[in-house]
Structures are given as structure tokens and as C-alpha cells.
UniProtKB/TrEMBL annotation:
It comes from the Eukaryota. It comes from Magallana gigas. The chain crosses the membrane at residues 20-41, 108-126, 133-152, 181-200. Keywords: Membrane, Transmembrane, Transmembrane helix. This is Uncharacterized protein. The keyword Transmembrane helix applies.
Length: 237
């Protein structure tokens, strides 16, 4: 009876809680993937010699902002913005520290795809609950690993650029470089936390559904034995 009550509660709350966690994970990862916030850098130049070489007024300050997403890059010069290809960005100074874009895209897309499949396995009714909970747990764990690798690589690239910024600050005058907070990494990290909670919830549902299934199977065998024995006695006498 207690197992039946637990199973009824799981049918109402377990899949709902897990689905909400996976939905939050998907939402965070989607937002992080489409937003140009994985790498943010601002370069300000005020050197008269530099501005003269560029054909600008010596008193004019040039502010260049680079906002990198996984699928596009925005480059703004004095608030005039333009989207350019990643291949062009790789030829620019200091961008050799960035990981390959295709690998980053693959990691983000695979993580979201596995998260979607896991959510469908949890929400769609099926006879074998324990099996689909286990599959959802495995797929979601892989998704969190992919997204964590993406977060780590981009965080390392930001840290590397921060080191370069400190070196150039001591060598160049009239140029200031600022690496801004990569908000897409933070959003993806929050999504990864939701994903871990979703894995924990899936593991709990799998364990409980498996524990409830085993006593039921033993109980059926136990009730079948006396009936079979009674039939044999009738045929004998």
C-alpha cells in the first residue's frame, strides 16, 4: 500500500518537477547560445599618433566593442555596429586564444538536443517507467557534461584574454582594453545547475519506480503458488 501511495505521488509531482527543471535548463542554454555574451571586450584608443594613422582627428577617441556569440559576432566602432564572420575575427590580433567555433556550436547544440529528448522521455507516458527514467538520466548527464565543457572552454578563453590585457597595458600607452563579464557563461552555468538537479530528480524517480516494481512481482508469484498447489491436490484425489 505504501508503495502504491508513493507511486501515485510520483505520477503527480515527480515528472512535473523534473520536466520543470529540464525546461529551465533548456531555456537557459538556448538564451546563452543565441546571445552574443560569451566573450565581451572593449578597446579604447586615445593616442594621437594612432588616430592620425587611422585618418581620424587627434582628439577623437575610438571605442571598439566585440561581442561574441556562438553563431555570430558583433563589432561596434564608436557605436556603429556590424556583424562579421568568425573567420575574419580569427585574423585579428589576440583572437588566436578563442576555441574553434564549430566545436563550440556542436557542444551547445548537442547539449540542448539531449536535454529535449530527456524531457520528452519524462513527460510522455510509457509502460516501462524505470527504463525511460534511466535513459533520461543518462542522456541528461551527457548533456550537462557537454555544456560544462563549453562553459570551461569559454571561461578559459576569457581568462587568457584577461592575461593578454594585463601584458598590453604595460607595453602600450594610450590604449585601454577591458574584458567585460561574459553573461552567456553565467546563464549557461545556471542552466547546468538546473540540469544537475534534473539528473538528481530523474535518479530519484528511477530508484523509486524500480523499488515499487520489484515487490509487486514477488507478490504475484507468492499468490500464484497456492492456487497451483490446490489444483494439483484436486487432480490427485
Amino acid at each position: 500500500p505504501s508503495c502504491k501511495r508513493t507511486t501515485a505521488m510520483e505520477k503527480q509531482f515527480g515528472p512535473i518537477v523534473t520536466s520543470v527543471l529540464l525546461a529551465l535548463t533548456f531555456g537557459c542554454w538556448l538564451t546563452a547560445m543565441v546571445a552574443p555574451g560569451w566573450f565581451l571586450i572593449e578597446i579604447k584608443t586615445s593616442s594621437s599618433s594612432l588616430t592620425s594613422a587611422l585618418g581620424e582627428s587627434p582628439k577623437m577617441k575610438i571605442t571598439t566593442e566585440v561581442d561574441m556569440g556562438l553563431f555570430f559576432i558583433n563589432v561596434c566602432v564608436n557605436e556603429k555596429c556590424e556583424q562579421i564572420d568568425y573567420e575574419k575575427m580569427k585574423t585579428m590580433k589576440n583572437f588566436h586564444a578563442m576555441p574553434e567555433l564549430l566545436e563550440l556550436q556542436a557542444e551547445g547544440v548537442l547539449a540542448m538536443a539531449l536535454c529535449t529528448i530527456s524531457a520528452l522521455l519524462v513527460m510522455i507516458p510509457a509502460r516501462s517507467k524505470s527504463t525511460r527514467y534511466l535513459i533520461a538520466l543518462i542522456l541528461m548527464s551527457i548533456a550537462v557534461i557537454f555544456e560544462s565543457i563549453l562553459i570551461y572552454r569559454m571561461a578559459s578563453a576569457n581568462a587568457e584574454m584577461d592575461k593578454i590585457k594585463k601584458i598590453e597595458r604595460t607595453l602600450l600607452t594610450g590604449i585601454s582594453m577591458e574584458v567585460k563579464l561574459p553573461y552567456s557563461i553565467l546563464i549557461a552555468g545556471i542552466g547546468a545547475l538546473f540540469g544537475i538537479l534534473g539528473c538528481v530528480s530523474s535518479a530519484g524517480m528511477y530508484r523509486k519506480s524500480r523499488d515499487c516494481a520489484q515487490p509487486g512481482q514477488v507478490l504475484n508469484v507468492f499468490h500464484a503458488a497456492p492456487a497451483t498447489g490446490f489444483t494439483i491436490l484436486q487432480e490427485t484425489y
